[in-house]
Hints:
A: Leucine-rich Repeat Variant, Leucine-rich Repeat Variant, B: mainly beta, eight-stranded antiparallel β-barrel, two-stranded antiparallel ribbon, 7% helix, cytoplasm (chain A)
Amino acid sequence: xxxxxxxxxxxxxxxxxxxxxxxxxxxxxxxxxxxxxxxxxxxxxxxxxxxxxxxxxxxxxxxxxxxxxxxxxxxxxxxxxxxxxxxxxxxxxxxxxxxxxxxxxxxxxxxxxxxxxxxxxxxxxxxxxxxxxxxxxxxxxxxxxxxxxxxxxxxxxxxxxxxxxxxxxxxxxxxxxxxxxxxxxxxxxxxxxxxxxxxxxxxxxxxxxxxxxxxxxxxxxxxxxxxxxxxxxxxxxxxxxxxxxxxxxxxxxxxxxxxxxxxxxxxxxxxxxxxxxxxxxxxxxxxxxxxxxxxxxxxxxxxxxxxxxxxxxxxxxxxxxxxxxxxxxxxxxxxxxxxxxxxxxxxxxxxxxxxxxxxxxxxxxxxxxxxxxxxxxxxxxxxxxxxxxxxxxxxxxxxxxxxxxxxxxxxxxxxxxxxxxxxxxxxxxxxxxxxxxxxxxxxxxxxxxxxxxxxxxxxxxxxxxxxxxxxxxxxxxxxxxxxxxxxxxxxxxxxxxxxxxxxxxxxxxxxxxxxxxxxxxxxxxxxxxxxxxxxxxxxxxxxxxxxxxxxxxxxxxxxxxxxxxxxxxxxxxxxxxxxxxxxxxxxxxxxxxxxxxxxxxxxxxxxxxxxxxxxxxxxxxxxxxxxxxxxxxxxxxxxxxxxxxxxxxxxxxxxxxxxxxxxxxxxxxxxxxxxxxxxxxxxxxxxxxxxxxxxxxxxxxxx
Amino acid sequence: xxxxxxxxxxxxxxxxxxxxxxxxxxxxxxxxxxxxxxxxxxxxxxxxxxxxxxxxxxxxxxxxxxxxxxxxxxxxxxxxxxxxxxxxxxxxxxxxxxxxxxxxxxxxxxxxxxxxxxxxxxxxxxxxxxxxxxxxxxxxxxxxxxxxxxxxxxxxxxxxxxxxxxxxxxxxxxxxxxxxxxxxxxxxxxxxxxxxxxxxxxxxxxxxxxxxxxxxxx
Lengths: 703, 218
C-alpha cells in the first residue's frame, strides 16, 4: 500500500532545475535522480519538465561530464560516472515513447556525446548511454545510421558483438530504424550480421525482442536475404532436433551441415533451421515476444511465399494474433496491424481467419468504448483486409451491427483513424448484394463521408472517395440522396485538384455514379462538370485520369438515346477531345475511348457519321487510323471494344450503313476485320462475324 | 421472376454461396453481351393445366465477377395478375465454368437427375451430356464455347413484401448465347409447374446498335 513520503520530500520542477545548476556534484546527482523518478512513464511530467527547458540543462551536464571523463586516462571518479549515468538515464526517459522528448534531446546536440560514451571504460556509463540511445532509436525521429559505410558497419558489428545487453540491443534497434533499402539489407547480410542476430534470439528478453524487430527490418520484401537466413542453421536447434529423432543414425550432423536441402528433408522445412528459432518464440511466455515473432514470420511469408506454407503454421499465426488482440496494452494495439499484413490480399488466410471467428473478435473490439486511436485504427484496418475479398466476411460484419461505430470513426480527431474507417467501409461496400438493395445509400453514412471530401488530409480525401465510388453504384432510385447532400458538387470540385490521385478517384466516383443513372441525375452531373472541364480531363497529363474521364463519358452517353447529345455540346468539343486523345494512348485508355465511341455510334445517323469522321480523321492525315491499331492490339479487350464500334457503324437497316461500310473499306478497316475471323478470343471472333454478316446484307460490300 | 405460391410450396429461398471463391482456376468465358448494365427482355411461360399464360420479363445484369463464376441482377415481371405494379426480384447467378461451379447443382432440392433433365432441354448442352454424367462437367473446357450455362437464384423481392402471394423458392437453369445475347431458361421448383420456359433477348433500348456502360468497385 502506498504511504506518504515523509523522509524524502518531492521537489517541484523549478526547484529541481535550480538544483541541477548546483556546483555540488551530490546535489546535482540527487536532482537528476529525482527528475528521472518523476518522469518515468509520466507523459504529463515529461511535458512540464520539457517546457521548463530540462532537456538542454541535463544535456549540458552530460556533455560537460562526458568531456571530463574523456580527458581522464584512468577510470573517472565515482561521482563523474554516476552523474553521466543519471543524466543519460534522464535523457533516455524523456525520449521513451515521447516524440517531443526525442526532438528536444536531438536538438540539445547530445546525441554524438551519447555515441562517444559507448566507448567509455566504465561499463555502467556504456550501459546507460546504450539504454538512452535505444530509447531514441525507437522513435522515427532518430537520425538514420548510415551503416553501409564501412566504418559505420564496423561500429555496428562491434555493438552487436558486445557483451553488454543494452549495447547489443542498441545495435539491433539501429538496424530496425535504419535498414530501409534492399542494398542496406544485403549489406547487413554480407557483413554476417544474420548469424549473430540468430544467436541473440536466445538472449535476454530485451535482446530477443530487439532482435526480432531488427530481423523483420532486414527481411522486409527481400526473399534473397530470407533465403540466406533460412539456410543458416541454428546449430543448437539442429542438434537437439537430430538427437530427438534418431540417435542411431551415423553422424547425421556431418551430412546436414552446410546442406540446407538435407536439413529440410530430414527435419522438415522449418524445424532445425534458423526459422525454427523464430517459430519457437511464438510460444514465448511474454506477449510482446510472441507478437514480434509472429511479425517476423508474417514478413517472411509475405516476401517469400514458399516458406511457412504449412496450414498448421498459418492457422497458428491467425490464432496467436487474435489471442494477442486481447492484450489491453501496446501489444494488443499492434497485433491488429500484424494481423492485417498477414491476411491482406490473401483469400485463403482471410477464409481461415473467418473460420476462426476473426470478424466477431474485431467487431467486439469496436464495441468497446474509448479505444486508443492506435487500436481503433488497427482494428478498422484488420476488418478492411478481412472484408476485402470474401462476401461471407462482409455479410458477417454487417450482421454484427457495428456499422455505426465505423461511421462514428469517420469523424475521429485522428486522421489515421478517419482514413482507416474509410478503408474499412470501402471493403464492406463491395458487397454487390447489399449495394443492389440500396443498403449503403442513406444519410447516416452519406453525410459524414461527403464531409470528408473537405478533409485537410489528402489520404483521408482519397479514402473517402473510395467509399463513395462504391456506394454510388446504387441500383435503386437513391442516387438523389447523394446529390441532395451536395456530393456531386464536391466531387466535381475534386476533379480540379492538383493531386492526380484525387482527380482520378473523384472521376472514378462520378463514373460509377453515372452508371445507369436516370436522365435527371445525368443532367445534374453534366451541368456541374461542363463539357469543357470533361474535355480537359480527357486530355489530362495522367493516363489514369484520362481513362476515368473517358469511362465517365461512356456511361453518360449510354441509356436513353438523347443522352448521346452531351458529346456534341459546346460545338462537339468533347467528341473532338476523345478523337484527339485516342491516337496515342495506352490499351486501358483505348478501351474506354472505343466503348465511348461505340455507344455514340449506337445512336442515329448523325451520331454514327460523327464517330466515323473521328475514326477516319487520322487516316486523312496520312497516319494509320487508331482503330486499325486497336484492332491489331494484343489486348483482346481492346480488339473487342474496337470491333463493337464497327458493328454499330454498319448496323443494318440504317440508311447510311452502306456508305459507311464503303468508307471503312476504303480506309482498310474492313480488310483488317476480315483478317480477324479466327481471332483467338471468342468474343472478338463473334463480333467480327457480326460485322461480316451485316455487310453481307449489302451484297458485295466487302469485296 | 417470382411465380405464384402453390399450396404445397413450403420452402423459402436458401442462400447461395456465390462467394465460396476458389482460386487457381483458368479464365472464365468472357462475353461483352453478358456484362454489367446489359438488359434483356422477353417472357416466362407460366402455363398450368388450367390456363396458358406468359408473363413479360425484363432482366438487367448488375454485378459480374467471372473469376468467381458470379453474376447478379434484377428480374422484373410485368403483367403479374395478382400484383398492382411490376414485381422486381434480385437474383444471384452461378456460372458453370467447371471450376467454381459444375452442371450439378447439389442444393435447392435439385438432384443430379433434375439437373440432367433440365440441361438436356438446351440443344447446345448435348455435346457435354456424357462427360457431365461422369464428373458434372469439371473436366470440360467451356472457355471457347459460344454458350454460357448458368443457374439464377432469386434472393429477395426488391419492391414488394414477401406476403405478395408469389414465391421465389425455385431457381432457373439458364443458357446464354454469346453470339446474339439471347437467353433461354427453365424454372425449377419441385412445388411449381415443371419446365416453365424463360425466353429473353438482348435489348438495345431504342438504339441502332449496342451500348455498354460499366462500373468498377474500389
